[in-house]
Amino acid sequence: MHYSGAFPYFVRHIVISRWRMPMLSALLATLLCCPPLIAAPDTAQQVSKTPPPTSTRQLDPLTAPEPEKDLQALSAVIDRYEQAIDEQEAIGGAYDLQLSEQLFSLGAAYTTVGRHADAEQVYKDALHISRVNNGIYSLSQAPMLRGIISSLEARNMTLEAGEYLNQLNWLHLKAYGQDDPRLLPILFETASWHLSIYNRSKKSRQDLTHLASAHNLFNTTIGLAKKHHQTFQTLPVQLTEILRAIANTSYQLAMHYTRYQSLPEEDPFARQKWFGYEPSDTDGSLRYNYYKNGRIAHSEIISLAAAENRTAEQAEAYAELGDWYLLFGRKNSAAQSYQQAYELANTSPQKDKLVEYIFGRPLILPVTQTLAAPRYPESTPWAEIEMDINVKGRVNNIKVVNHSDSIDSAEVEKYARANVRPLTFRPRYENGIAVVANAVPLKISMPDFGSNK
To answer: What's the pTM?
Structure first.
């Protein structure tokens, strides 16, 4: 006898006025007025060459399995789980709390072998049993909700996944209230979730919903974090992590409005005040305000590092401010910030390593998009190229070194001209002076190379 997934399940519909919680009105506007259309696990966004600190909560309920799976052994494990669930139900009844844990484990096993629809069902059953035993407001439901989200995402059921993410947010708001620093991880996670989807989208006009939602939520997160920063020595999410995310979304919003040259009337977020600055009616002003927001965020990161005498972090923060200026074509300001970073790095006890870490090689900007780049199937066409990066961070002299058999050199050169040459890099520095970096290697994936033929 095997578990048949016959437990009852219900979804409680909640209606909350977004105006009843001034502190989190931006969050509630995002959750209730603009539900997510696409779901993705995300990624905490951080402008750094090292991986960012991970959020304390993840959307994926299961650690990624090893590439080589023994499917026969996994099938045997699933059989044992199903048998144990049948036995536990016979002993304790359909709402035995132990069943919730066993069903969750079964859902994780289903996920491992790609049985995502089955996983969704048992996660829902586990969720229902948890609610019956612990109440509808218990945070014990969070793992099950994340499991459901993961299962829906795996089948591209993104609208439905977004609804469950909204439930997860509502659950935390109900458990902690509107002004608790324990909300920081879920706020940051949800904002990163929206940003990850925008990064993986075609960045169409309609995709603005995700980008604006991310920016809205990151700003809500920083407001809550700043409120509690002096009270708690350690916050669940660091201020610098949130500030970098705000800078990232500010850059992408500036690029979005540059591409589309108009502000959609239905956009509920574009008139929000970020850091006290309210965009005006012109697209140029919108772009400038997002530029200013990012500059302020980077300056605050510098101030936080300076206040605690963290020289290495302060030097890197100045380099990131230089990156920001360079992305917006402010070359003189970029050079000044890079020089400040170089001088600070040279005051560090490990100055040689720090200078090499920050300036030893050209770095693609913005760094966050590089870290969050999607993973493509092994069959995706690829190429290895070399290029020169000049003192202004621009690409010259692209040379094809190697490529997959499915494409030829001419296709790679055409693709690189369209997609690599426009990139901006942090230039390499030697002895405090920007220098040309020759034959810089880069491996690129070409999932859509055919569109450039």
So the answer is: 0.73
